């Protein structure tokens, strides 16, 4: 949530004060049940913005459960579908000049003294993204499961359902034998497997990053954050679209509740929004890519998922060696094609970005291209894993 807190010198027991109206929407349990929340907000002391920090906030009275002064809270109401998330009290929360005692700030990584002085630690601020990395890698794994369920339903239906194709009174053609059905269904089947593989790789990546953090090695955290953000975005978008496509592949029967597809769709589709809007997440990946491209000229060797950028000279000049259809069965040719595409899109964006005197203005003007470059990079990760 976008909150702003200001540190005051007096009185010391109310050192943090929320100075602008702020609003959040959707957290589960917030609508009716929750009495406390961990709120992430911008911290300002003595006129200086110290970025986002965590605060423990009491929301309701422990006596009668009514909201505290300065807080507006409630349930957001009915959501998409009859079941799905309607059993959860997703809520909204508004703060209006709400005061929080200083000692309710989470001060493991940084703190504010009673006099209002901000004291930072040597631990990188990116550490706060650690939990995001864990949650988003779990979402990628779940994408495989949801898409596999939908594809299983559509495949079985396509094998059982027969329609048209016979002109001599014989048995009608199985729907799955139609090439148009295969062209729509089989890529979704492949994607379900691909997302499973990349989900397993993300689990390894998270374990590796966690072990490095315990050893005070924060070098791989930015890449892990970019990977999980981008893959969360790409896989949830593909899965929600894939479930809907599976519904269409089942014809009118797919619209029936008993097919399992409508409920699967309404349960899954919020994944495109929670834990980060999918477009916004791809823009975070784009910033990571632009930073990596800018460092190529300095001689810094890229590693991890951007290691292919170390072969920039070759990839920017190469052309596909595919001569016939069976050449696409060569994994190396497929991988190089994805690498060349991802690199060329990223470099093009970086070159266009350099034409702007104001980098943020340039980033804003090139949003659509940056999102496409980020998606290409994420697709490369899936293919390579």
Automatic annotation (TrEMBL):
Acyl-CoA oxidase C-alpha1 domain segment(s): 129-290
UniProt cross-references to SUPFAM superfamilies, sorted A to Z: Acyl-CoA dehydrogenase C-terminal domain-like, Acyl-CoA dehydrogenase NM domain-like
InterPro entries: ACOX_C_alpha1, Acyl-CoA_Oxase/DH_mid-dom_sf, Acyl-CoA_oxidase, Acyl-CoA_oxidase_C, AcylCo_DH-like_C, AcylCoA_DH/oxidase_NM_dom_sf
Domain of life of the organism encoding this protein: Eukaryota
Signal peptide extent: none
Acyl-CoA oxidase C-terminal domain segment(s): 330-384
Keywords, comma-separated and alphabetical: FAD, Flavoprotein, Oxidoreductase
DNA-binding in keyword set: no
Record family assignment: Belongs to the acyl-CoA oxidase family.
Full protein name: Peroxisomal acyl-coenzyme A oxidase 1.2
Native source species: Camelina sativa
């Amino acid at each position: 949530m976008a909150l702003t807190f200001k540190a005051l010198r007096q009185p010391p027991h109310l050192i943090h004060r929320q100075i602008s109206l702020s609003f959040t929407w959707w957290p589960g349990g917030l609508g009716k049940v929750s009495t406390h929340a961990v709120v992430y907000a911008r911290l300002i002391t003595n006129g200086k913005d110290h970025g986002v920090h965590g605060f423990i906030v009491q929301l309701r009275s422990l006596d009668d459960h009514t909201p505290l002064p300065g807080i507006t809270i409630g349930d957001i109401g009915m959501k998409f579908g009859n079941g799905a998330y309607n059993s959860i009290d997703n809520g909204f929360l508004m703060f209006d000049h709400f005061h929080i005692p200083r000692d309710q700030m989470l001060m493991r990584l940084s703190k504010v003294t009673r006099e209002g002085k901000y004291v930072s630690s040597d631990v990188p601020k990116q550490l706060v993204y650690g939990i995001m990395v864990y949650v988003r890698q779990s979402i990628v794994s779940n994408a495989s499961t949801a898409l596999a369920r939908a594809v299983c339903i559509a495949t079985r239906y396509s094998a059982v359902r027969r329609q048209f194709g016979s002109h001599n009174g014989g048995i009608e053609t199985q729907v799955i034998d139609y090439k148009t059905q295969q062209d729509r269904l089989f890529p979704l089947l492949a994607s379900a497997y691909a997302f499973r593989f990349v989900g397993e790789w993300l689990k390894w990546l998270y374990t590796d990053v966690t072990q490095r953090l315990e050893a005070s090695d924060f070098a791989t955290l930015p890449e892990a954050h970019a990977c999980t953000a981008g893959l969360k975005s790409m896989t949830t978008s593909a899965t929600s679209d894939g479930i809907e496509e599976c519904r269409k592949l089942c014809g009118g029967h797919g619209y029936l509740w008993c097919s399992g597809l409508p409920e699967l769709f309404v349960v899954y589709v919020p994944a495109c929004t929670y834990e980060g809007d999918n477009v916004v997440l791809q823009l975070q990946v784009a910033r990571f890519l632009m930073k990596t491209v800018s460092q190529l000229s300095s001689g810094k060797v890229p590693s991890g998922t951007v290691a292919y950028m170390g072969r920039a000279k070759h990839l920017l000049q190469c052309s596909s060696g595919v001569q016939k259809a069976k050449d696409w069965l060569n994994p190396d040719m497929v991988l190089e094609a994805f690498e060349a595409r991802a690199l060329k899109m990223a470099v093009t964006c970086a070159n266009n970005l350099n034409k702007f005197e104001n980098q943020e203005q340039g980033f804003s003007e090139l949003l659509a291209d940056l999102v496409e470059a980020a998606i290409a990079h994420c697709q490369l990760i899936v293919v390579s894993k």
